[in-house]
TrEMBL record:
It comes from the Bacteria. The chain crosses the membrane at residues 6-26, 33-52, 64-81, 101-125, 174-195, 237-255, 267-292, 337-356, 368-388, 400-419, 431-449. GO terms for biological process: L-glutamate transmembrane transport. One of its GO terms (molecular function) is glutamate:sodium symporter activity. InterPro entries: GltS. It holds the Pfam family Glt_symporter. The keyword Membrane applies. This is Glutamate:Na+ symporter, ESS family. Keywords: Membrane, Transmembrane, Transmembrane helix. One of its GO terms (cellular component) is membrane. The keyword Secreted does not apply.
Amino acid sequence: MAYIDTFTGFNILAVVGLMLVIGVVLRAKIKVLQNFLIPAAIIGGAIGFILVNTGVIPFEPKQFVNFSMHAFIISFMSLCLTNKAADEPETDKKEYLRGSLWMSFIWAGSCGLQAVVGGLLLVAYNKVTGSSFSEMFGYIATHGFTQGPGQGLAYGKMWANLGGSADLPIVGLIYANVGFIFAFIIGVPLARFFIKQGKNANQKANIEQEYLVGILQDKSGSSMGHEKTHPANIDTLAFQLSILFICYGITFLYMKYALVHLKGLPVVGVLSSWGLFFFHGLVVATLVRLFINKIGLGHMLSVRLQKHITGAAVDVLLVASFMSVSFQVLVSYLGPIIVISIGILAATFFYIWFFGRKLSHLGPERMIAQLGCCTGATGNGLLLLRILDPDYSTGVSLELAFFNIAILFTAAVPMFVIAPNVPNMGFLSIIGYYALYTLFCFGVVWYFGSQKDTAISTGKTSAPSIPAEQ
């Protein structure tokens, strides 16, 4: 029996792979999926959710939870290992910084806004229905919607270990999955509305057939990356994965040490939690990348290949997160999930719409990108942005690259100060802290949105859709 158990992990990966292929085929064949640009991972994940919960696939949802968690960590660490492309275009630095910071504070404000709305709606739901759900089921929504399935799961597990409900991780995943679907159902029509009104900067915007179907024609494929090692010695992919796995191992050893020896320290102690493994992982990956660059071996890290590793991890994460959801848990919390999801998604949409319209330059592009980021992930933002800006000529895609780094600082308060302490704080304190931080972000976003534009030409910020190698 023990021998058979060794196959379990690979069989789960086989199921995830099967769902991805099914998603690719359905996207290529079904028009409505193409019209809303639903990614294959979401299509396959939704089908997998049904098959697992109806017993057609002989696995339990909880068996996919760990795959979601590790795929999330790997995607973050891989992102931090990705070097800057050598031929990345010059941009107007002031406008680039302004746009990046505007989006990062929009995202940070969304973290606080969604937590406040979720908490208040949960309390209101309890009063109206006579239920007694913990307010944490409202707060966890922000980690699912704004931060995605990985952090919805990570913070849910953290709160569960600190005395919260054991269902918090799954509910966090549910919110994330709802957010992914919302991002495309609302985001695609909104992007097409901007094009119809002529509000987008790139007037060449159109959606080609390959983009709709999701499969490239035989002659239009591009290279995944340059070979960095001789195949007679070691495969390039094996080498690149080895660096990633080393980073993972270093993070694991550090976490084991920190949980024993650093737990009592004021700031480090709060962050010393297995639930925040992803945060320590991205720090380690960043330091390793800087070290490799410092010793003159940065060219060994293939930019394109590392991006594909990140993308593969995200695809696995999406499928596994859908299949991690138990139908029983979904039904048990269906009422508050529906109420909170509708309230948060409406608040997020009008929040981004209100401040996005204040931008006189690249407002639609930044708005649509953040709608995807605040209800799913950066990948969603890039997909929606590509509808308005198919060849990424506006530079907003470059702003999103810096945005991924900036949010670690602009959203540090809700992510690493408030959230880890939620199980030990009272309702009014939590709502108060989140609300104050949200108002602060509103002020910063208003300031950046009111500044005069320093770049009106899209020519200076053109970027290739696939970054070149270093």
